[in-house]
């Protein structure tokens, strides 16, 4: 059951940190997921979030406005 994870953010430091946490978490826990970076502001707006970074799992916004912890990522994916 492959998950699709999208990281919404325009390339800010927190957005890059979020991507690293997500990639590290799925690698460490052997989670099958594709990670996609969404940097286009118009696409980000469509998710109705006001602050980035945000983590979207299978089109559901799970975390927004901050860099998540590894455990939060695992929880969002379970």
List the helices and strands and how they pair.
Layout: E1 3-8, H1 13-28, E2 33-38, H2 41-46, E3 54-57, E4 60-64, H3 70-77
Parallel strand pairs: 1-2
Antiparallel strand pairs: 1-3, 3-4
Helix pairs in contact: 1-3
Structure explained in plain terms:
With 78 residues, the protein is of the alpha+beta class. The chain is built from three helices and four strands, in the order βαβαββα. The chain has helices spanning 13-28, 41-46, 70-77, and strands at 3-8, 33-38, 54-57, 60-64. A four-stranded mixed beta sheet has the order 2-1-3-4. Helix 1 crosses helix 3. The longest helix is centred in the first third of the chain and has 16 residues, at 13-28. The radius of gyration is 11 Å and the shape is globular. The mean pLDDT is 95.
